[in-house]
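Dear colleague,

Thank you for sharing your sequence with our group. We've completed the structure prediction you requested, and as agreed, I am returning the results in plain text so they can be pasted directly into your records. Please verify that the sequence below matches your submission; if there's any discrepancy, let me know and we will rerun it promptly.
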Amino acid sequence: MTTDSTLRFGAQTDEVTSLLRIVNLVRTGEATTRPEIGKVTGLGRGVVSQRVDQAIQIGFLGDGEFGASSGGRAPRTLRFRAEQGRIVICALGAAHMRVGVAALDGDILEHTHRTWDIAQGPEKTIDAVMSLIDDVLKKDPKVPVWGVAVGLPGPVDFASGQPVAPPIMPGWNAYDVRTPFEERFNAPVWVDNDSNLLALGERARRRDSLADLIYCKIGSGVGAGLLSKGRIHRGANGAAGDIGHVRVSDSDVQCRCGKTGCLEAVAGGWALVRDAEQAIHEGTNSSLGPLVKKGALSLEEITLAAQAGDALAIALIQKSARVAGETISALVNMFNPGVIVIGGAMGSAGEVFLAEVRQRVYELSLPLATRDLTITLSVNDEREPLRGGAELAREQLFDVTFPRWFAEGRPSPERAAVPA
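Please find the predicted structure tokens below.
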């Protein structure tokens, strides 16, 4: 039998490997009774019982209900103890922050949000996030946090967890986002681009672990999360999917990043607000006029006006969709996804936006790349990025770093936060 010290220091014996596999079989639902585990793993009844007892002793598994009988005594099912830890998710946007807490199976237990300007800087933002986290953890203060996922509206070096020259986040470049959360919760922390969290949330919602999917977030800014066979494609440095700063042909509009002609500067929400204000100042008649005079115009107001039939709002939304569709078509040709999901505030414009995107993608993409392609709107659920953050943490905890910490019964920053 493997000693505690052998397990604790991570020696990959056959016993350790089989124990890990059994826990994950139960966790994923692939095998939930001892006979099923024996059938899947090829291990004998005695070995299976020994490994299951070990997993129960460490705290990962527990006895469940009795399963269906195949002629003899009904077998006792096993369950993964998802209640023994919590995952904290912080999804930060340009103008808001959302915080949630999930069980280890990804179920969102509590969540809250507030408006917030990300340009206030990292220190003030993280202080505000911690306050929201305190609120959502109040109901179960004694349940330990096993992991934290943070989504940011800008480029992130996933290995270091640091933002890299984010255009709309002054003061955030190379900021150490991980350490404040690690020190607060004594748990591993993963930081990623918000579009990647949304793509993972869509994977969870669809229950498609092998999805080839692009999630295009088009709000104040523009970005994309790329899923290849269910895995996030981040690229060499975490910049994959940053389509907001792809150059648009025949455009010399100044972007917030300092360059000219970026997709975001033509099709992003802040660009539409700019163009609407300019058009109204030049005399265009629109229901948006009073909002412009009050200085209260927003992308959300433009999408609502488009749905109500305002000609200026419709024209602006369609222009954004055409330009975005051209860039998305390049992704389709290169990446060949099965699904494209349009999310973000622009997605709330509905078919006014979606129809134009579809038309441009099918016009400009290869027939083979669009043969089985579905282009659809997101479900527009504010919990989407929270589910995605829970998926990110669960993936890292149980698929990537599990062998390094499982014998201790719960992860630590030292054993689980370092990329494999």
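Summary note from our side: Confidence is low (pLDDT under 50) at residues 1-11.

Kind regards,
the structure core
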